[in-house]
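Pipeline run #58 for the internal structure catalog. This entry was flagged by the ingest filter as a single-chain record with no existing model, so it goes straight to prediction. Upstream metadata was stripped on purpose; only the residue string is passed forward. Reviewer on rotation: M.T. Logging verbosity set to normal.
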Amino acid sequence: MISVSLWLTTPSPSGCSVVKTFPSLEKEFCPGCKQWHILQVSRVAKRSICREAREAPVFSESPAWRTVGDGWRPLHDSMQGAGLSFEWHDFETSENLDWGKSFHPGCVEMCLNLAGNGRVSSQSQEITFTPLTAGFYRNHEPPLQATRQPHQRHQFLTVEMSCEFLRRHLLDFRPALHPLVREAVAGPAGSSALSPPTRLTTRLHQILVSLREAPVLASAQQLWYQAKALELAAELFFLAPGGQELFCHRQQRLAAERVEKVIALLRKDLSNPPSLQDIGRAAGCSIFHLSRTFSAATGLTIPQYLRQLRMERAADLLRSGKFNVTEASMEVGYSSLSHFSQAFHETFGCCPGLYPLRTPAQKSSFKQRSQPGSQGRVSELVSQ
């Protein structure tokens, strides 16, 4: 509250604007004022407002991701301008990571989760992001609580949108929006809220992959990222009329459920996995159709995905220090030590005997192979 001189205008009965002067009026500046519009403020008030704006703390996510180092990668940060931010995450953590510290206050955030498990909770709700899921939430008061589980490879993309960005682009579509987004479009007020995650469709996965490296000139990236944000909003923020499930969404959901069932079957017994025919029967469709669906969703064939799961498990066993190389290879179903060593080296860039002591050069080599376009599209998936 500050005392300022205001010039305000209001329509006269004849339709013409009439200027009224208030030499000394104590007013709280409110952008949502519906009757009066500020035309001019005194220089003293302007200096005071600017000083308060400069001194106001600016939110930063950096402290939340300090422990993961370069595992947090901002792709496009325009929160102070367009009200939009894209970030890619790829890391492992030895203990629970307080993910909620990265949530921008008063914003709606999307999460496209490729790998790892993350929990987000409010006072009345809790949701869990499992591999190959997508969802969104709004962080306000009271703040959301969120954690990322330890001893997992976490790969996910987040997109933060300010209420002003949503209002600017989605105001005309309010009746068709999800209630969480509809409330954000109406204004910044409102409590924190969560939307249950859905399966990560093939289309969402393709958008995620493209966001990793913008294929346009630097001068066009702001426009390109805004277009991608609206594309994601069209995919996730709208509800079908009457709550009916669209045919295409039903097909995508069924495909995602089959992929999840295949992954669960493979994880169940890595040393003695089911045959492709058994997997097809369990999923309720032909193995040829299932193979195409699985490859479209993950970028890997079923045998390739099984190998990645085996390598992840073997790496966990070697890291624990309780298994030697031979024991780890047998535990994940390899009877040939040479085949196991070759597969491990192709995955992690070092032989299994040196894995816990991987050198910086080997880490750099692995990162280069994990870039988009690398063999098997490993970097876009849940594999390491």
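catalog note: The longest strand covers residues 17-27.
catalog note: Residues 252 and 376 are 23 Å apart (CA to CA).
status: ready for reviewer M.T.
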